[in-house]
Amino acid sequence: MDSKLRERQGTSNRTKKQVTEEVRGMMSQLFLSMETHLVRFLAHYEGKDGFYSMLSYVRLSSAVLQAQDTGSFLAITLGSALIHTKRNFDRLMQAQLRSIEDCKPPRKPNAASSVLSPIYWSLPRIQR
Asked: Do the Cβ atoms of 46 and 53 come closer than 8 Å?
């Protein structure tokens, strides 16, 4: 009697493991598809205006940091999307930095042209 009970439990454990593995496989395919669509959406959203990457970066960061189960499919998917958003945000900041560096200051200080012009011309030459 005990051997039959153990045999049933062994079979039950094997079927539970099989079901668990099947569910994990299905969930990984589902969330992989979701991740692809989420990254495409974020690329489109950030393509409209580069500063949207800052908004999506902040929202995804808060969602990832507030995740209770860091190993869940959703947390991993959002973390991956956060990485893509962070890269886009870094590119935006690099572009902004380049545009600031490429900006040429006025040749002569003119008090009427800018409020910051006298401050700029008072800086030592090395800092300009």
From this structure: yes
**Measured distance CA(121)–CA(128) in Å, rounded:** 9
Whether this prediction's pTM lies above 0.70 is answered by no
**Cβ–Cβ < 8 Å for 43, 88:** yes
CB 106 within 8 A of CB 114: yes
| C-alpha distances out from residue 96 to 50, 55, 93, 102, 107, Å | 10, 16, 5, 10, 23
CA–CA gap between residue 24 and residue 73 (Å, rounded):
9
Grouping H, G, I as helix, E, B as strand and the rest as coil, residue 94 is helix
Amino acid at 128: R
**What does each of the 128 residues of the chain score in pLDDT, given as a tens digit?**
555 555 566 666 778 888 888 888 888 888 888 899 999 999 898 889 888 989 999 999 999 999 888 788 888 899 999 999 999 999 999 999 998 888 877 666 555 556 666 666 677 665 44
Q: How far is CA 11 from CA 3, 17, 20, 21, 24, in A?
A: 12, 10, 14, 15, 20
Asked if 109 and 118 touch (Cβ cutoff 8 Å), the reply is: yes
